[in-house]
TrEMBL record, chain A:
<keyword id="KW-0460">Magnesium</keyword>
<comment type="similarity">
    <text>Belongs to the small GTPase superfamily. Rab family.</text>
</comment>
<dbReference type="GO" id="GO:0005525">
    <property type="term" value="F:GTP binding"/>
</dbReference>
<dbReference type="GO" id="GO:0046872">
    <property type="term" value="F:metal ion binding"/>
</dbReference>
<dbReference type="GO" id="GO:0003925">
    <property type="term" value="F:G protein activity"/>
</dbReference>
<keyword id="KW-0479">Metal-binding</keyword>
<dbReference type="GO" id="GO:0000139">
    <property type="term" value="C:Golgi membrane"/>
</dbReference>
<dbReference type="InterPro" id="IPR050227">
    <property type="entry name" value="Rab"/>
</dbReference>
<dbReference type="InterPro" id="IPR027417">
    <property type="entry name" value="P-loop_NTPase"/>
</dbReference>
TrEMBL record, chain B:
<dbReference type="Pfam" id="PF20653">
    <property type="entry name" value="COG6_C"/>
</dbReference>
<feature type="domain" description="Conserved Oligomeric Golgi complex subunit 6 C-terminal">
    <location>
        <begin position="59"/>
        <end position="506"/>
    </location>
</feature>
<dbReference type="GO" id="GO:0017119">
    <property type="term" value="C:Golgi transport complex"/>
</dbReference>
<dbReference type="InterPro" id="IPR048369">
    <property type="entry name" value="COG6_C"/>
</dbReference>
<dbReference type="GO" id="GO:0006891">
    <property type="term" value="P:intra-Golgi vesicle-mediated transport"/>
</dbReference>
<dbReference type="InterPro" id="IPR010490">
    <property type="entry name" value="COG6"/>
</dbReference>
<protein>
    <submittedName>
        <fullName>Conserved oligomeric Golgi complex subunit 6</fullName>
    </submittedName>
</protein>
Length: 273, 507
C-alpha cells in the first residue's frame, strides 16, 4: 500500500514524486469527448521549456476549482488523488478546502492548487468568490443521480460569470462509477453526460474515488493541460506586460523557482499515440 | 613521515585555501554557494577537534586554532546574513535559503533579523498583489478588478476575503520551505507566525474598505422596504466565517483580530439597523379590520425575521445570534400588536390576538431555532384560548338558559331541586327545548366572531371546550332530575335525551 503523503512533504521535495512527473501529454478519457484535441504539448510551449526560456519567476501555479451538487463526491475525489484515501462517511465541506499538488511537467516544477468547494446552497455565496481567476474547472456529478448532471450547466455558468474574459479548461467528471454495475445502466448515463459535456465545451471523464479508477489519469491530464495553458498564456503576455508579469501577483506570489534543473525522467505515464 | 603528520594536522585543524575562499567569497557581494556551507561546517568540526589538542597538553595551539575558527565563522555568518537579506528582496531567491537560515540559527539576533526582513519584503508583495487585484485585476484585466464589484457589497467583501484566503497557501508553502532545514525549533509554530506576520499587510487596505462598506450600507435610506439589515447580517456572518477559516492557517494574529473587529462592527450595525427597521415596520401594524386579521405590517415584520434567520447561512454557530435577533423583532412586534388591538372589545380583542400569535408561532416554528420565544408565545396562546372559551361558554350558557341553573347544581344542589326557583320543571323544560334547537345546528354554539379565527385548530379547540362544558352540565342535570328525592314528576319528558346522545350530537 502506498503511503499517504502530506502536502508539506510534497512541497519540500526538490523534485516531484515519481508519479507526478509528466513528460508527455496524457490522453483524454475518450478521444471523441474532449475539445482539447492536441496530441502533445504545444510546440511553442515545448520550445520555451527546452530553451530554458521560462519567463516568470517562482514556481508555476495553476488554480483548479472543483464544483458540483452536494455529496456528488468532490472531496472524496480530491482526497483520493492527494492522499490516496477513501472515506465512505459523508462529511459536508464547509466553505472551501484547498490542497496543493506538486508536479514536474517537462522538467519544470508546477503546482496545482485545488480548491474543493462546498455543494451546499448556503455556501454558494462564498464559493463564488473562488471562481475568480481560475485556470481549470472541474464540474462533478454523481452517476447515480441524474439531477446532479442536470445541474452541471448552472454550476458552470456561475463559474464562467466570474471569469468573463478568461478561458478556463473545463472538465465534466462522473463520480461513483463503481456504483453502476451493469454496463447498460452506465452507458445510458454516459451518452447523456457526453451530450452535456459537448454543450458545455468540457472534456468528459468517469471515475471512482472508491476504487481509484481513473482518478490519477484525470488529475495528471488536468495538470498537463493547465501547464500547457499557463506557459502559453505567459508566452503571449510576455511582450505586453513584461514588468508586471515578473512581479508576484497575488495568489501567484513567487515562492522560489526551480531549485536546480530537474532531471528528465523517463515518462512515468505511457504516451499512447 | 614528517610531511604526513603535517598534512594530517592541517586537514584536521586548518581550513584549506579553497574552503577559505568559499567562506569569504571573491568579493563582498559574491553569492553564497553550497561549498560555503561545507566550509562552515568544517569550522565547527575543527572547533570540536581542538579538544584533542587540549587533552594532549597543546593548550596554546588549541586556543589559537579555536580563535581562528571563531573569527572565520563570525565573518562568514556576517557575510551569509548580508547575502540572505539581499536574497529576501528578490522574487526568485536562491535554493540555499533554507540552509542559510539554519546556519543563522546560531546567531539568534541575525536569525530574527532575517526573518523580520523576509516578512517585511513579502508583506510588500502581498499588499501590492492585493491592491492590484482590487484595482487592476489579473493580467490583461482578467479577472476583472475586485473593486468593480463594489456596488454589490456582499460580493465585494467576499471577493476580497477569498483573495486573501487564496494567497495564504503560497505564503505557507514559502514559509515551510524557509524553515525546512532549521532544527530545534517548532517549525509549524514559526511557519504560522511568519504567515501571520506577512498577512498583517493586507489588514489596513482591507479594513478601510470593509468599514466603508459597512458604514455606507448602514447609511442607506429606505428603511422599510430595504434589505439593509439583511445585507449587514450577511456581511457579518461572512466575516465570521473567514475569521475562523483564516485562523486555521495563521493562528491568532493581526489579520484574525482585524476580521474579528470588523465582524463585531458589522454585527453591531446590523442589530441597530434591525431595530430601526423593526420600529418602522411596527409603526405599520394597524388596527385590524372587520375580519380581525393581522394587518400587513405583522407579516412584513415577520418576513424580515425569516429573511435574516435564513440568511445566516455560512456561519455554523449563528444560533447564538438568533436569540438576540428574535427578541429584537418579536418583542416590539408583540407590543405593537397589543396596542393595535387595544380599542377592540374583549372577545374581538382575543380573536385578533390569537390570529396574530398564530402567525408568529407558525413563523417561528419554521425557523427551528427559537424554543424560548416559542414557549412564551404558546403560553400567550393558551391564555387567550382560555379567556375566549370562558367567554363563549358563558354566552352559550346564557343563550340556553343554563346560567341560572348552573350555579345551583354546582357544587351542592339543594334537595328537592325541583322546588328551587331556577330549576323548576318549566325552566328545565325550556332548557331542553333550546338545547334541541342548538343540537339541530351546532354551529350556533360558536360566537360569530370566532369564524374569524385564522387557525382551524383554535376554532376546533373552542368548539370542543364549549361542547364539553355543555355535555358535563347536561349529564349532571340529567342525573339530578332523575333522582326521586328531587321530586320531578316526569323526568324523562323533561330531559328526554340521554347524556350520551347529547354528547354524540355535539362532538
Ligand atoms: N461508492 C462510492 N461512493 C462515493 C464515491 N465518491 C464519493 N462517495 C460517497 O459520496 C458521499 C459524498 O462524498 P463527498 O466527497 O463528501 O461529497 P462532496 O461533493 O464533497 O459534498 P459537499 O462537500 O457537501 O459538496 C460520501 O459518503 C462518499 O463516501 C465513489 O467513487 N464511490
Ligand atoms: Mg466536499
Amino acid at each position: 500500500m502506498l503511503l499517504s503523503r502530506s502536502s508539506v512533504y510534497t512541497m519540500l521535495q526538490n523534485s516531484a514524486a515519481k508519479d507526478r512527473i509528466i513528460n508527455c501529454l496524457p490522453p483524454p478519457f475518450i478521444r471523441q469527448a474532449t475539445p482539447y484535441t492536441g496530441d502533445d504539448f504545444d510546440e511553442k510551449v515545448k520550445n520555451a521549456v527546452n530553451s530554458g526560456r521560462m519567463i516568470e519567476t517562482g514556481i508555476k501555479l495553476s488554480k483548479l476549482i472543483v464544483l458540483g451538487d452536494v455529496a456528488t463526491g468532490k472531496t472524496c475525489l480530491v482526497n483520493r488523488f492527494c492522499h490516496r484515501v477513501f472515506d465512505s462517511n459523508y462529511k459536508a465541506t464547509i466553505g472551501v478546502d484547498f490542497e496543493v499538488e506538486r508536479f514536474d511537467v517537462l522538467g519544470v516544477p508546477f503546482n496545482l492548487q485545488i480548491w474543493d468547494t462546498a455543494g451546499q446552497e448556503r455556501f454558494k455565496c462564498i464559493a463564488a468568490s473562488y471562481y475568480r481567476g481560475t485556470h481549470a474547472i472541474m464540474i462533478v456529478f454523481d452517476v447515480t443521480n441524474i439531477v446532479s448532471l442536470a445541474h452541471c450547466a448552472q454550476w458552470l455558468e456561475e463559474a464562467r460569470d466570474a471569469n468573463p474574459d478568461t478561458n478556463p479548461i473545463i472538465f465534466l467528471v462522473a463520480t461513483k462509477r463503481d456504483l453502476l454495475h451493469t454496463s447498460s445502466s452506465y452507458s445510458q448515463i454516459e451518452s447523456e453526460a457526453r451530450r452535456v459535456a459537448t454543450n458545455l465545451g468540457a472534456e468528459y471523464w468517469a471515475v471512482s474515488s472508491k476504487t481509484g479508477d481513473c482518478v490519477e489519469e484525470l488529475f495528471i491530464r488536468v495538470a498537463a493541460l493547465s501547464f500547457n495553458r499557463a506557459v502559453h498564456r505567459e508566452l503571449q503576455g510576455a511582450g505586453k506586460r513584461h514588468s508586471r508579469i515578473s512581479l508576484p501577483k497575488g495568489i501567484k506570489l513567487g515562492i522560489w523557482k526551480t531549485w536546480t534543473t530537474v532531471e528528465k525522467n523517463t515518462c512515468s505515464h505511457q504516451c499512447k499515440k | 613521515m614528517q610531511e604526513e603528520v603535517v598534512k594530517t594536522f592541517l586537514k584536521n585543524f586548518q581550513l584549506s585555501s579553497e574552503e577559505m575562499f568559499a567562506l569569504k567569497g571573491s568579493s563582498r557581494d559574491s553569492p553564497i554557494t553550497s561549498q560555503f556551507f561545507e566550509a562552515l561546517n568544517k569550522t565547527q568540526i575543527i572547533r570540536n577537534n581542538t579538544k584533542y589538542l587540549l587533552q594532549t597538553g597543546h593548550q596554546k595551539t588549541a586556543l589559537d586554532i579555536m580563535e581562528q575558527m571563531n573569527v572565520a565563522r563570525e565573518s562568514a555568518l556576517e557575510r551569509l546574513f548580508r547575502w540572505f537579506q539581499a536574497q529576501t528582496r528578490t522574487p526568485d531567491p536562491s535554493p540555499l535559503i533554507p540552509e542559510a537560515l539554519a546556519a543563522l540559527q546560531e546567531r539568534p539576533v541575525l536569525f530574527k533579523m532575517v526573518i523580520e526582513e523576509w516578512i517585511v519584503v513579502r508583506r510588500g508583495w502581498l499588499t501590492r498583489g492585493f491592491l492590484d487585484a482590487l484595482t487592476l485585476g489579473g493580467p490583461g484585466g482578467a479577472p476583472k478588478p475586485i473593486e468593480l464589484q463594489a456596488h454589490d457589497p456582499l460580493r465585494y467583501v467576499g471577493d476580497m476575503l477569498a483573495w486573501i484566503h487564496q494567497a495564504l497557501p503560497s505564503e505557507r508553502e514559502a514559509a515551510q520551505l524557509l524553515f525546512s532545514k532549521c532544527v530545534d525549533i517548532d517549525a509549524s509554530e514559526q511557519v504560522q507566525q511568519t504567515i501571520s506576520g506577512v498577512s498583517e499587510s493586507v489588514c489596513r487596505p482591507l479594513k478601510t474598505r470593509i468599514e466603508q462598506v459597512i458604514v455606507s450600507e448602514q447609511g442607506k435610506g429606505d428603511p422599510v422596504g430595504g434589505k439593509k439589515a439583511v445585507h449587514l447580517y450577511k456581511i457579518s456572518s461572512l466575516l465570521h466565517f473567514y475569521m475562523s477559516t483564516i485562523k486555521q492557517v495563521t493562528g491568532k494574529g493581526l489579520l484574525v483580530s482585524t476580521l474579528e473587529e470588523l465582524h463585531q462592527l458589522s454585527y453591531k450595525m446590523f442589530i441597530s439597523s434591525l431595530q430601526n427597521q423593526v420600529t418602522h415596520a411596527c409603526d405599520r401594524v394597524e388596527p385590524p379590520g372587520e375580519t380581525l386579521a393581522p394587518s400587513a405590517g405583522v407579516a412584513k415584520t415577520l418576513s424580515l425575521l425569516t429573511e435574516i434567520v435564513t440568511a445566516a447561512t455560512v456561519s455554523d454557530d449563528a444560533h447564538q445570534d438568533f436569540k438576540q435577533i428574535i427578541s429584537c423583532v418579536v418583542d416590539p412586534l408583540l407590543n405593537a400588536i397589543s396596542e393595535s388591538g387595544a380599542s377592540l372589545g374583549a372577545f374581538e380583542g382575543a380573536v385578533y390576538l390569537l390570529n396574530c400569535l398564530h402567525q408568529l408561532h407558525s413563523t417561528l416554528s419554521l425557523l427551528h431555532t427559537s424554543s424560548d420565544k416559542l414557549e412564551m408565545i404558546q403560553g400567550q396562546i393558551d391564555a387567550q384560548l382560555d379567556t375566549l372559551s370562558q367567554e363563549q361558554i358563558n354566552g352559550v350558557f346564557h343563550a340556553l338558559g343554563l346560567s341560572s341553573i348552573y350555579p345551583v347544581i354546582i357544587p351542592s344542589p339543594p334537595v328537592p331541586l325541583s322546588s328551587h326557583p331556577s330549576c323548576q320543571p318549566l325552566a328545565i323544560q325550556a332548557f331542553s327545548t333550546k338545547l334541541d334547537g342548538f343540537l339541530a345546528a351546532p354551529d350556533y354554539l360558536m360566537f360569530p366572531h370566532t369564524r374569524y379565527l385564522l387557525s382551524s385548530s383554535f376554532r376546533k379547540q373552542l368548539h370542543q371546550r364549549t361542547a364539553h362544558a355543555i355535555i358535563s352540565t347536561y349529564a349532571q342535570l340529567h342525573n339530578l332530575v332523575h333522582k326521586p328525592e328531587n321530586e320531578y314528576s316526569d323526568p324523562s319528558s323533561l330531559m328526554p335525551k340521554l347524556p350520551d346522545v347529547v354528547k354524540s350530537l355535539l362532538l
